[in-house]
Amino acid sequence: MAGPIFNTERHVKYYLRCLKTFLPSAYVSNDSNRMLLAYLTLGGLDVLGVLQSKTTPEERQGYIDWLYHCQVPSGGFRGFSGTDFGDEKRTSDNKAWDPANVPATFFALVNLLILGDDLARVKRRECLEWLPKLQREDGSFGEVLGPNGTIEGGSDLRYCCCASGIRYILRGQAGKGVEDVPDIKVSKLISFIEACQVNCPYTKCLDWTDRFLFGQSYDGGMGESPFRESHSGHTYCAVGSLHFLRQETDKIPSAQLLSPGSKKFEGLVGWLASRQTDKLLGEEDEEGEEEVADNDNEEDPTTAEVEVRTRDESVDDLIRGLSNMAPLSGATISCAGFNGRCNKLADTCYSFWNGAALMVCFPVTIKNSHAHQVYRCWIGIV
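The line above is the sequence of Geranylgeranyl transferase type-1 subunit beta; the predicted structure tokens follow.
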């Protein structure tokens, strides 16, 4: 029986449908996120190596013009053109209803770069002046500026990653030409990333190098925000944020998290690598179901009985009594994907979030590449 094949042509056909015709009806609720949809479409065609051959120069210029049409006069980009009521009607009183937002600005800049634009029409100075206004006192970033300049939107690592990316693209390593524009508070941003883990009472007693360990939760991953569960998407955003920031200098403490050999790095990589799983959506664990059914027929021991049993046995005896679990290996599995959290099923998007985060850490293949390739082909057949 032939193995699964990744159907590249069908992917290209789907992306071109989204790019050149109407979007599928499932995307109606995402109309205000067209900048993100454009990024996924253009990025997909670019990764597959067909963006130039499947579009004409005139079409690409049209896409560039649409992106600039979404640029807000005061700096940044809106998520779609539906809120644009014209520059001549824009005032200080109503601008909050047609705001630039952080993710859309990042995606717009990347879209322009994918299309080969030189960013000459980007309001660079205005955008860099707008960006620090989105940063909260705790170092995190919001999504938009509301009435009276209030910071609106969530407070998590996704916006931190987008803000760091905007800063890097427009300010660069030296900030040439915008040296007089106030920068974001980099140290506070790093502190927020550090706090995205289980609380540590000793954080205030540590210097920058040691404190950076506490940007991770107890298992090595990164949470959405402080006191949240580790998640692959947010771990990627944390790694991406620090990667953007460290392009400026190697002296910032973020380099420790991304330095091979450090405890922070090893914990991060270990958590990412352990996200690989052969548990796929739709599979049924019949043995597990039968085992649960059998256990339901047995009378559960009382707490007192368990305490007596464990008190009469040594720790070594208890350890020896544990069931043996053979580790997964290339010989025992034929297909492996990635999950985003512990004990979850494999999901397509996490192949990117985990894989990309690992590639930022180092370009060495950690995952079972053959099994993962089979998984990617399997989910690519629709």
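Note on the example: DSSP finds 17 helices and four strands in the chain. The first strand starts at residue 144 and ends at 145.
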